[in-house]
Give the backbone structure.
Amino acid sequence: MKSSRLLSILLLLQTRGRMTAAELAEELEVSVRTVYRDAEALAAAGVPLYGDAGHSGGYQLLAGYRTRLTGLSTGEAEALFLTGMPGPAAELGLGRALSAAQLKLRAALPAELREQADRMRLRFHLDAPGWYAEHEETPYLAQVADAVWRGREIEVRYRRWKEPREVDRRLEPYGLVLKAGRWYLVAGVQGRGGAAEPRTYRVDQILSVRETARECLLPEGFELAEHWRRTQEEFHARLHPEEALVRLSPRGAARLTGAQARALAAGGAPDPERAGWTRAVLPIESHARAEEQFLALGAEAEVLSPPPLRARIRATLAAMTSRYA
């Protein structure tokens, strides 16, 4: 709706400062011509909005102009309260700040939106960790978060999975990510070429931390969310570097999860030799891991290729038959 779009333009300019018509159009997913018309409508309504032509031009609000928090839809008000995660906020030392912010936001809402937001808060709760995940102590989370916020280099002693288990690292903290109840630090570490390369560290594996006096800046163009998305894609690509051709019964197909279930849904086809069964190419981590996974399905699955994996499973089944004979 136009009214919602006009308010979005106001809030964008208020929070980001000068923006070009092209930038506003991309943000709002409309044409540049629509932005021009909206800017004229705002100016006609008395909003102190002005634009400069030229390469470095753009729209901006008169210095000091602020719009009050208005125009929230019911869904937007509900979503704002749904984003509150008191556990992670408390771990970062922001528990009281989050509560105060929610209180002020609630007081600013009209009565009908306040009622909807309260209903959302009472009926929905976000709990990120999985059922079987144990809580990892992160005694240095607050110090790491402070270094991230202030842009300060840190020296840490870190426990890793390979030898030597404990290593010292000098890191440029770029940001913190909460994934499935576990905190990760994305930080730059000096590479062989001299430039800092972003790497990921588990905060609960940091054994000590000392902040240095050296300032560190984010690399030009670095965005934490985009970096994390690419990192996750690369991780999943490395996790399943091989494939196996498998036929599955309906029960076996129903027991697949994750990447294998997605591959089955995308490329599964009726098996030409067994009625009711499905044949599909599934991603696998390694032959050893695939052997465990497909043996766990018992008689509900049969590996057709690659031959070395099929031979490996046949040898294991022969050993089991001999043992239980």
Notes: The mean pLDDT is 85. The CA atoms of residues 40 and 46 lie 10 Å apart. The two ends are 74 Å apart (CA to CA).
